[in-house]
Every structure is written in structure tokens, then in C-alpha cells.
Design goal:
The protein is an alpha/beta fold and about 325 residues long. The chain has 8 helices and 15 strands. Helix content is about 30%, strand content about 25%. The structure holds flavin-adenine dinucleotide.
């Protein structure tokens, strides 16, 4: 079966990762345009109905390897390489995230394939997939095609939206002999560090705090504003490095990529390394006392002023509006 194969990551409770589900939906859409099939690979202890349930995202088949451990790249490379070779897949698509990068890179080396990373969009041209990859600090887009199969496509975080519909996938158990080196590492425990118990990648409203907040204690202003809107707090690297806020909340090149409906930047200059992590936000509102701050170049609404005066009033106004 030719087609597009997607790796679907899950946590220990059996919940599938949002970026993986986005990749499944994207693969299903592209497979439809190509006139081929989309399928998923899952590893570890995934229940029948959970595996079959991936059909809701448009894949017709799920290959499950119960023996391979979840969360380690090398065993998953073994599984995907076998499924791709046995079934003649044309492409492998990953939804983004560190594990996807690691598996995608390993798979590329194993299959002597072509790879494109940080992909933000995939198009069909002349019956083949062409990946769009932003380059030169996101100022240009490179179109990357593949001269041979399989082509490996690794998405940027949150690049693909998950669309849930109806459908059930056929589940096929596959036996894969793991490479010797794939059994050297053992997963001891899995978990994710979260700031204030909120998954900032899923938040609809994010209040980003930068050095303009002045000191660690002033993050309370960002937290109160976020709370008034049911949102979460994010941070720049400058404040994370200063120990004002946890790394789990860092947005940018060396942090997380987010795309909320509203990103409210408080005292953030808008350095390119921060911009790449939040520029896909639906609406960007910046408060900065410097009218020449770069953040205003890519904000939908800019407020020039002292955040210490503006933010408490804004929080009060939102609370009053919600209360009334
Ligand atoms: C390899 C590399 C990777 C990096 N990765 C990341 C990354 O992942 N994420 C990231 O964020 N950065 C990253 N950086 C750092 C980045 O270059 C910037 O230094 C950082 O984003 C700046 O953070 P900031 O906006 O909080 O601070 P600053 O640049 O110091 O900006 C503070 C802003 O607050 C404003 N301000 C000050 N007082 C007030 C006030 N009272 N009211 C309103 N506004 C006020 C100022 O006008 C200024 O614009 C990286 C850098 C490198 C070299």
C-alpha cells in the first residue's frame, strides 16, 4: 500500500498528542488529494478501541507494535522503517516536537531518505507532496520536493490542526525485531514539566511576560491578567534565564511554539528568537513603553505605555466586564 504514514505519540494514560492528531488529519487530507491512503503507527500498550479511534482523524489503518516502548526514538525508528518498507509507503509525516524530530532524523538515516524539518504547510503538486519550510529567520519560504521515496516531513509544532470526524481504523499488529542498539536504553519515567499546571500550547489566551515586568514578583500582574481571561502565562528567555519564571513557559526558538487566539505581550521587545515561537497567534497585542520596540512590527494592536500602570487597570476592567 503506498501512502502517508504518521507516527501517533501517546502518554501513559493513552491520550494521543495534539500535534500527532494534527499530523493524522493533515495526512488524511493530503492522501485524499493524492488518491492514496493515510495510516498511523502506534507503539506500546494501546487498547484496541483507542487505536481504532484514530480513524476519527481520517486514517484507514493503524499499525500497532506492542513490543516497542513508547517515548524512545530508536525502537520507533525500527518499527516505522519496517512498516514503510513492508508496505511501500511514499511519505512519513510527523507533527512536530522533539521526539518527532529525533525519530524523523533516525528514519531518514536508516532509509537513506530525504527529510524536511520545521515544515509549516504541505501541498500537492503534480501528484507529489511539496513541503513548505520557512528559512532565513522566517522571512522566506523554501518549497521542498522529494526525488525519491520515502520522503520524510517533520512539521513545526502546532503547524497542523486536528480535525475530528467519524470513522474507525483497521488495527494490524506488527512484530518487529528491534535492533541491538534500540534495546540499550530503557524508559524509567515519563512526564512533562508544566508551569502552574497549565498546558500553554493548548491555551486560547496567553499573556507573555518579558523583562519589562521589572522583577520576578511582578509576574503576578501577568498571572492576574491571564486569570481574568481564563488564560495562561508564558515568558521570554530573558526572564527564564533570570529565574523569574519556569522554563516550561518559555516561548521561542529554544522554547515552545504557540498559536493561541490572543497573545498579549507585556514588556517584551519582540526579538526574532521570541517571535518565531508566537508569530502564528491569531491576534497579538503588545504593551511596551518604547514605541520603536520590534514587537510592534508584528502586533495587531500596540499600546505604548508603562505596563505597570496599564495592566492592573486592564485586569480590573476585564473582571468588571465579566462580573457585570
Ligand atoms: C540562540 C538564541 C536563542 C534564543 N531563544 C530565545 C527563545 O526561545 N525565547 C526568547 O524569548 N528569547 C530567546 N532568545 C533571547 C532573545 O534574543 C531576547 O534576548 C529575548 O527574547 C528578550 O527578552 P525580553 O523581550 O523579555 O527582554 P528585552 O529585550 O530586554 O525587552 C524588554 C522590553 O520591555 C520594555 N519595557 C521595559 N519597561 C517597561 C514598562 N515599564 N512598560 C512597558 N514596557 C517596558 C522595553 O522597552 C523592552 O522592549 C534567544 C537568543 C539566542 C541568541
Amino acid at each position: 500500500m503506498a501512502g502517508i504514514l504518521v507516527y501517533a505519540l501517546h502518554d501513559d494514560e493513552g491520550n494521543f498528542n495534539k500535534n500527532s492528531l494534527g499530523a493524522l488529519s493533515e495526512a488524511a487530507k493530503l492522501a485524499g488529494e493524492l488518491g492514496t491512503e493515510a495510516a498511523a503507527v502506534v507503539v506500546g500498550d494501546v487498547a484496541d478501541d483507542a487505536a481504532a479511534g484514530l480513524g476519527k482523524y481520517g486514517v484507514g489503518k493503524v499499525y500497532r507494535c506492542k513490543e516497542a516502548p513508547e517515548g524512545l526514538a530508536q525502537p520507533i525508528v525500527d518499527v516505522m522503517a519496517k512498516v514503510i518498507s513492508d508496505n511501500d509507503f511514499d511519505y512519513a509525516l510527523f507533527g512536530g516536537g522533539l521526539l518527532g524530530f529525533e525519530i524523523g532524523a533516525g528514519l531518514t538515516a536508516r532509509l537513506n531518505a530525504g527529510v524536511t524539518m520545521e515544515v509549516t504547510q504541505v501541498n500537492v503538486q503534480d501528484g507529489k507532496l511539496v513541503a513548505e519550510r520557512p528559512i532565513l529567520q522566517d522571512s522566506q519560504i523554501a518549497d521542498v520536493g522529494y526525488v525519491d521515496k520515502p520522503g520524510i516531513i517533520i512539521g513545526r509544532l502546532n503547524a497542523f490542526d486536528a480535525n475530528e470526524g467519524d470513522g474507525t481504523a483497521e488495527v494490524e499488529d506488527v512484530q518487529v525485531e528491534l535492533s541491538e542498539w534500540s534495546t540499550k536504553a530503557r524508559m524509567v519515567t515519563r512526564g512533562e514539566q508544566r508551569g502552574a499546571d497549565v498546558n500553554i500550547e493548548d491555551a486560547n489566551v496567553l499573556v507573555g511576560g518579558g523583562r519589562g515586568l521589572g522583577k520576578k514578583e511582578n509576574f503576578e500582574l501577568a498571572e492576574q491578567l491571564a486569570e481574568s481571561m481564563g488564560g495562561a502565562v508564558a515568558a521570554t528567555r530573558a526572564v527564564v534565564d533570570a529565574g523569574w519564571y519556569p522554563y516550561a513557559a518559555q516561548i521561542g526558538q529554544t522554547g515552545k511554539t504557540v498559536a493561541p487566539n490572543l497573545y498579549l505581550a507585556l514588556g517584551i521587545s519582540g526579538a526574532i528568537q521570541h517571535k518565531v515561537g508566537m508569530q502564528n497567534s491569531e491576534n497579538i497585542l503588545a504593551i511596551n513603553k518604547d514605541q520603536n520596540a520590534p514587537i510592534f512590527e508584528f502586533s495587531d494592536l500596540g499600546v505604548v505605555g508603562d505596563l505597570h500602570k496599564i495592566v492592573p487597570k486592564l485586569t480590573e476592567a476585564i473582571k468588571a466586564k465579566k462580573g457585570g
